[in-house]
Design brief:
359 residues; alpha+beta; Beta-lactamase; 3-stranded antiparallel sheet; 11 helices; 28% helix
Length: 359
Amino acid sequence: MSGESPAQRFFPAPEADGGWYFATSPEEIRQQAGLQPDRLALAARDLEGRFGSDSWTICVVRHGILAAEIISFSGSGISRFDVASVTKSFTSLAFGMLFSDPQYATTLNLESKAYDFIPVGHPLNDIKKKDVSVGHLLSMTGGFVGETYGAFGGETRFGDGIWEYVLGRVPSRRGVDVARLFADPGTQWEYSDPGYAHLALVFAEVTGEEIDTYLNRRLFAPIGIPPVSWARSGGGKLIGPHALSYSGLVISARELARCGYLLLCGGMWNGRSIVSQDWIRTATQPSQSFNRRYGYGIWVNTTGSLWPELPTDAFAMMGYRGNRCWVVPSLDLVIARVATGPSELDLRYVPTLILNAVI
């Protein structure tokens, strides 16, 4: 971060009241945002050429100033997109908020056994599940089968429920059964939507509230974001409905940039603590030794191997189809991208291009 304290920083008003301060001239971009306007313009043209016809928006925020908004032909700064697995990072923030809340901190922490808070998951269909902790779920070390095994979230057969699937009562529509763990909890890393989905059940049991309702009240509203859309599933004869904890958040680039800026500011917003700074520090460091690029629901560059061109303090919320929010505290920089695609594009060059404009 720059030398400013959070209290000295500029915090944007809600979008309806003017929103971000937008640098509109080369002088403002250079003097206030600390970016080379010519290089930023070159980066914009490069990005516009690379992304083809997909709908997307990129917001670049430096020193609290919206320095650039790079938009596809069918997008806008306020267009909301389903940001896929970026949702996982917000689930992490929600749990971090519970961990520091006196109402919940005495009963819930990283070591808490997840199935103690999932009564609907009993009787266990794999005895090893009794040892799965909340920390295992957040760090992808619960032993649940995931992408390596063809297990993805939401791929259920008609008439089957997502929660029945993630608890191992029914297979996916591809015939993948996630009932049994492939490894003892805490012994391997596997990117698993079914595993991470358990966090929604834990959250609802502990708080009596869904993650989306909680975050709309406790995080999004305080930083000037109107209620977000967030996918829910289940109900009727099925378990639920519950807000998905692994995907389904719908948000705009400007709004996602606010969230990145909140993390950049250590969880403080205009003098108010929204997310524990301790949790942000914890979540943005390697959470285990098996994949040191992954924190707790957030991807990290601590080893310098995820984005070699970026400082090692960089971290990101990342989702399918190029949805991203990079935060680089040492450069006081946030880059948010929301999009419909492309799905297979290597997006590491996005922050690299912006980095070339940093003064």
